[in-house]
């Protein structure tokens, strides 16, 4: 039994590694840093789009539970996640392209989601500055007033915040152009949606894919990614994830850490397999003990 468990554990570990690498070839991890200097030129537009998203997402939630009113809790949840690119509520950001038009920056909505680079991060940062600590206030307003889009825009962008109370300044002539909008493939977009839907599930926290180039170059995320890691996760998925996401230290050997993660994962899987095997064995033995025995005396009497 122990030998079978070891073989299964090793096989599952190899399958996990191979499947992650194959899928990651289609998925690039988000890259780029927010250009904070661009935020004043797009903040009002971002605020208007956030208000529209809050309205439409609450309406969508209402249509899903048409028998009753959307709870304030659900509205707060939408408001908290609408600026977080790790959540489905913020997928709208991935369709926006920052385009320079004269002395202004314009947010142009595209037909499909794009790769998340510096412009994507800039819009996310502007959204966070707009919402700030106002998520519960705007959620309460939505719940109690049930406003239209125009009323919600005025409340969020002019009353609750000052995002649209003054015109943005003219764009500097020496501004460095942003990167072009690069659409995602349908397979890539679908895989990211699956990963987002798995967010928070036991055994799959904060899952993130890396390309083969990232793995070969030991590019396991930036400093902001490290802040999001939970070092206390002890299940086999997080053990493997933690090794893959750690940055290579100056004196460390990433290959040794990767092998150590595989070994730890195998041991954890082995323990689970042995536990299940013991439970099955105990169940079988209990069933055998309670199985009624044939009446040999009655059989002899018939003979």
Structure report:
This protein is mainly alpha-helical and 303 residues long. The chain is 57% helix and 4% strand.
Tally of alpha and pi helices: 12
Uncertain runs: 2-30, 223-234, 294-303
Global shape: extended
Protein structure class: mainly alpha
Binned strand content: under 5%
Secondary-structure topology with pairs:
Blueprint: H1 2-24, H2 39-64, H3 72-81, E1 96-101, E2 104-109, H4 118-131, H5 135-145, H6 149-160, H7 186-197, H8 212-216, H9 223-227, H10 236-245, H11 254-290, H12 296-302
List its traits.
two-stranded antiparallel sheet, 303 residues, 57% helix, mainly alpha, disordered C terminus, single chain
Explain briefly what this protein structure is.
By secondary structure, this protein is mainly α. The chain has twelve helices and two strands; from the N terminus they run αααββααααααααα.
């Amino acid at each position: 039994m122990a030998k079978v468990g070891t073989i299964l554990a090793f096989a599952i570990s190899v399958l996990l590694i191979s499947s992650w690498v194959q899928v990651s070839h289609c998925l690039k991890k988000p890259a780029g840093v927010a250009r904070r200097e661009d935020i004043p030129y797009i903040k009002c537009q971002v605020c208007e789009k956030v208000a529209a998203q809050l309205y439409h997402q609450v309406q969508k939630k209402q249509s899903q539970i048409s028998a009753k009113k959307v709870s304030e809790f659900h509205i707060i949840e939408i408001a908290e996640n609408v600026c977080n690119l790790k959540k489905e509520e913020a997928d709208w950001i991935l369709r926006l392209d920052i385009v320079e038009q004269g002395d202004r920056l314009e947010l142009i909505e595209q037909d499909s989601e794009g790769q998340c680079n510096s412009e994507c991060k800039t819009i996310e940062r502007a959204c966070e500055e707009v919402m700030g600590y106002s998520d519960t206030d705007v959620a309460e307003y939505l719940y109690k007033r049930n406003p239209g889009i125009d009323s919600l825009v005025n409340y969020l962008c002019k009353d609750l915040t000052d995002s649209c109370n003054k015109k943005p300044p003219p764009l500097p002539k020496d501004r460095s152009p942003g990167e072009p909008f690069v659409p995602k493939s349908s397979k890539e977009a679908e895989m990211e949606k699956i990963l987002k839907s798995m967010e928070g599930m036991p055994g799959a926290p904060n899952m993130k894919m890396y390309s083969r180039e990232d793995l070969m170059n030991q590019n396991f995320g930036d400093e902001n990614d490290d802040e999001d890691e939970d070092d206390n996760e002890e299940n086999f998925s997080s053990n493997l994830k933690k090794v893959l996401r750690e940055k290579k230290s100056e004196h460390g050997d990433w290959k040794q850490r990767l092998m150590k993660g595989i070994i730890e994962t195998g041991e954890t899987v082995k323990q689970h397999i042995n536990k299940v095997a013991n439970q099955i064995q105990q169940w079988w033995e209990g069933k055998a003990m309670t199985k009624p025995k044939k009446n040999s005396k009655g059989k002899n009497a018939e003979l």
